[in-house]
Amino acid sequence: MSMTETFPSREEWIAGGSRRPLPGFPHAVFVRQDGPVSGRPVTLLHGFPTSSHDWGAVVPYLVAAGCRVTTADFLGFGESDKPYPHDYSVCEQADLVEALWRLTGRETTALVAHDYGVSVAQELLAREPARVTSMMWFNGGIWPDLHHPIPEQNLLAGPGGTEAARHVDEEKFTAAIKRLTGERPLPADLLHDMWLGARSRDGFRILPSLLNYMQERRENSTRWTGTLCTYQGDQHFIWGPADPVSGAHVIPRILEVVPHAALTVLDKAPAVGHFPQVEAPEIVGPLLADWLGDHT
Fold this sequence. Notes:
It is a single chain. By secondary structure, this protein is of the alpha/beta class. The protein has a single domain, classed as Rossmann fold, CATH 3.40.50. The protein has helices spanning 3-6, 10-15, 59-64, 90-104, 116-127, 151-157, 161-165, 170-180, 188-199, 207-210, 213-219, 221-225, 227-230, 251-257, 276-279, 281-294; strands at 18-22, 25-34, 40-45, 67-72, 109-113, 132-138, 234-239, 262-265. The chain has an eight-stranded mixed sheet with strand order 1-2-4-3-5-6-7-8, with helices on both faces. A hairpin with a 2-residue loop joins strand 1 (18-22) and strand 2. Helix 4 (90-104) packs across helix 5 and helix 8 (170-180) crosses helix 9 (188-199). The radius of gyration is 17 Å and the shape is globular.
């Protein structure tokens, strides 16, 4: 079965959720819940610059395994509010996730994080690690010194970022996404959906503010990287090595710092890049479902 047959369109994904206020959080957020209400709880955190739609082809595997899956678009992403001007921060996104757990009544949950969501997960673990029953990490800037942003990110995060954001069009956006992926080309309609999600609600004007997370990672490096060593739950890293930002060069650090964690490297040809859950959902979905079945 092809990716286009398994990946829901953006419209289908949005139709399965809703924009809603969260308890104690001042902005409307797009939220989805899939699977049986009594199922094993799992929360999926997406990356930059996309949305929860990235998990669209993986969620059915988790539902079939009996999980109750919670997803949301971070503030400034996808169908959530994109206030402007606004001082976006990873810590605020962690507040959003905690408000989401209050809304859904989740005292504990397994946590799956990718890219930007990795930093949010690290902040959540620094706050209340006991709430997270197990942790699954996908490609992301866990260690700031190993994060290699592409030129477009550096440009948008720099002093000329506001002007550069005005010139981001679909061609430039999709070219940047393609640069991050491995040997499995993403379908044109999926790339178009990513573009639509990023630009909705005038989203490109806030890209420079969202990219503050790279500096925030550096400022919180000790607090956030320490969570991998202090967290008492089980951890599993699912890693696409053909990722120029957080790929194969991160694997030795994982083995060094968390040697007892499970590690799955998606290096079998065609190798996977920065978006494992998007590039290879037929591999990642069963991996997640099996792990969560044993570790929630």
